Amino acid sequence: MAAALLSKSPRLVVCAVLCIFLFPEVGVLRRAAALGINYGQVGNNLPPPPQVVQLLSSLRIGKVRIYDVNPQVLSAFAGTGIELIVTVPDDLVPGMAASASQALQWLAAGVRPYFPATRVTGIAVGNEVFTGNDEQLKASLVPAMRNLHAALAQLGMDAYVRVSTANSLAVLATSYPPSQGVFTQDAAPYMAQLLRFLADTSAPFWINGYPYFAYKDDPTKVSLDYALSNPSHVGAVDPYTHLQYTSMLYAQVDAVTFAAARLGYGNVAVHVSETGWPSKGDADEAGATVENARQYNRNLLMRQISGEGTPLRPKLRLEVYLFALFNEDMKPGPTSERNYGLYQPDMSMVYNVGLNQQATTSAASLSLATSPASRRDVRKDFAGLCLVTSLAILLIITQALLL
Q: Is the pTM of this model over 0.70?
């Protein structure tokens, strides 16, 4: 029946086929919505949250991580459909661990009033706690996470919001080859508690992975192509698993997975909560250039669009949050710390990775084309027609099946 109906509309079929082969951006838009980005606010010249949300929507960014529960930011994201990870700062963790009511109060005051209009899907409790020096904070982290999860359940939000914490790669004693990944002696007891909680609540293990640091520390021995995730690079082969790695970041993720498996939690998903490359640095910060930053983030974007997983989990697309949306002028430390952004505070691009605004339509879209503006506009308009056409064909088939 469906075939008979489609035979009566051959132009629709031809148009759909042309869309698939000539205008892959239609599929790109859907997949690129899975790309995440970190929206930090350590600056005195950043645009107001409504303008930031407008920018993110125009770029088809589907996931955002923020480092607080700023009411203005949470309100600005309402109704956008963008998934949001919010953060509990380190200084609140001990109190939440000691008192379930404090966890409930924080959630009820800081998140619940904006939910579900603002699509909060994750809570990051602290940041890189297990590689710090505060032993009380380390001991408090998982109990605080448990109290937060209980508070989510009490408010009926636990099915929608996952609780985790972002970890530095320094929790690993060994990261190469990936199959030999193992947690440090100091971190292992805490990792066991954390992984047990994550497994119990179906939450991911978050890792802040920065191949830039590995390259900066030893640029004569670390391959720049490997650190930049260049797909043409031969890469490295794990001698134990014989898996080939063309991306240092993906190798780091698999090293964490192997380390978790050694504790009995190989089924816990590993996501990248932060990764990026600075576009500017001090004299002793090798590799901190605009071109390297563009190439690193562009390579990750293309891997995201293709749905690529790590060599260990090739069919499971790696969830990645780029760091960061803006250059933040008030961040302490070396020059590189203030130059991770894709955008300047005035919302001009630091460099172009392929996320281009299409200001001529109200429904802005992602463009990976490098063709002239006139061709891009034609492709954009035709891509919209393709989407409508595809939906029309789907409707025809559905109606036929129901007859």
A: yes
